[in-house]
């Protein structure tokens, strides 16, 4: 996809209490975009959450919730916070425009508008949004394996820790390290080492790939799995599956002292998040248990 493609084929939500205004905007945008519409603020918020449009065109003056309130409500909700909002309104005073921008709008178009200008401004905002999304994706993804990186893990851990503390649910982590991976590189070369990392990551993803579970690359040949709302027993089930899944990859490792296949060792730890403990302590525990798994023969988990 080229940068110019980023502006095309968005899903646009038009919010206006007058159907004729919606029709004019629909007419201006329908050739390039999928168009949704809402006739009031409450409905707009509902559609925003359910359909996650790429952009919202928002009327300012509406009965019930007005555009400023809708904009504030969007900003207050993590799921829809990043959807750009353009005000399209009969209001023309600089104070109205300033208020809209301060409420979080990215642009402000006064009626009567020119359709070509609306199309161009929509394209610009879609491009910016998609560049920002792509950038964020890059900053959160490990290039080699495609799984989450450590930054992404830390963000998820902070969020899930708080969520589990609030809902009084446990939270588990599994630290995973490939056995004798230095020897693997020495025996098969760094490039095949990279491929091995990719395959092991994919195998683990099959065991814990669905949100809110998160598999991340934690360091060179070290991975970590975050399991929100999962206790020790549930985490142990995942660890067992990982041993099984990695075994069934059947990757030869002639330089391992453990097996003639690639294997992993794991430390499994769970906790009830509260003020008396913290994520760092949980990770330290999992790390110590991983060390024990190495010490006691590798190709196993300790819990
Ligand atoms: P142990 O069983 O005790 O974990 O032994 P090990 O050899 O796996 O552990 P060690 O920490 O000594 O070596 C880790 C190796 O992982 C060394 C390093 O070159 C390799 N490694 C780290 N990141 C990458 C990578 O991105 N690609 C490749 N091919 N190798 C990597
Ligand atoms: Mg209106
Ligand atoms: Mg290792
Ligand atoms: Mg290591």
Automatic annotation (TrEMBL):
Keyword Phosphoprotein listed: yes
GO cellular component: plasma membrane
GO molecular function: diguanylate cyclase activity
The GGDEF domain, residue ranges: 169-303
Listed InterPro entries: CheY-like_superfamily, Diguanylate_Cyclase, GGDEF_dom, Nucleotide_cyclase, Rev_trsase/Diguanyl_cyclase, Sig_transdc_resp-reg_receiver
EC number(s) recorded for this UniProt protein: 2.7.7.65
Response regulatory domain span: 11-126
Reaction equation(s) it catalyzes: 2 GTP = 3',3'-c-di-GMP + 2 diphosphate
PROSITE patterns: GGDEF (PS50887), RESPONSE_REGULATORY (PS50110)
Keywords: Phosphoprotein
GO annotation (BP), single: phosphorelay signal transduction system
UniProt enzyme class: transferase
Entry-linked SUPFAM superfamilies: CheY-like, Nucleotide cyclase
Sites bearing 4-aspartylphosphate, chain numbering: 59
UniProt name for this protein: diguanylate cyclase
Naturally occurring in which organism (per UniProt): Pseudoduganella rivuli
